[in-house]
Design goal:
By secondary structure, the protein is mainly alpha-helical. 70% of the residues lie in helices and 0% in strands. The radius of gyration is 21 Å and the shape is elongated. The relative contact order is 0.05.
Length: 84
C-alpha cells in the first residue's frame, strides 16, 4: 500500500512539472526534435508578435492583386536566402 501511495505522489509531481515546463519547451527544441517549425508565428505578448500582427493587418488591407505579388516576391527572397 505504501509503494502505491508513493508511486501516486511521484506521478502527480510529474504532471504539475510538465504543466509549467511543457509550454516553454517547444520554443527551445529544434523542429526535427518536435519543437516549433521555423515559420510558426511569434507567441502573443512578445514584441515580435505586435510587429507580426501589424504586418498581417497591413497585408489584409492590400488589394488581392498587390497581396499576391508581394507574397510571390517574399517566397522568392526566402528561397534564395540560406537557412540558418
Amino acid at each position: 500500500m505504501t509503494v502505491l501511495a508513493g508511486a501516486a505522489l511521484v506521478l502527480a509531481g510529474c504532471s504539475s512539472i510538465n504543466e509549467k515546463v511543457g509550454a516553454g519547451m517547444g520554443d527551445l527544441m529544434p523542429h526535427w526534435a518536435g519543437g516549433l517549425p521555423a515559420d510558426a508565428p511569434p507567441r502573443p505578448g512578445t514584441p515580435e508578435y505586435a510587429r507580426f500582427m501589424q504586418e498581417r493587418e497591413r497585408q489584409r488591407q492590400l488589394p488581392a492583386a498587390e497581396r499576391d505579388k508581394e507574397t510571390q516576391s517574399d517566397a522568392k527572397v526566402q528561397a534564395t536566402t540560406p537557412a540558418r
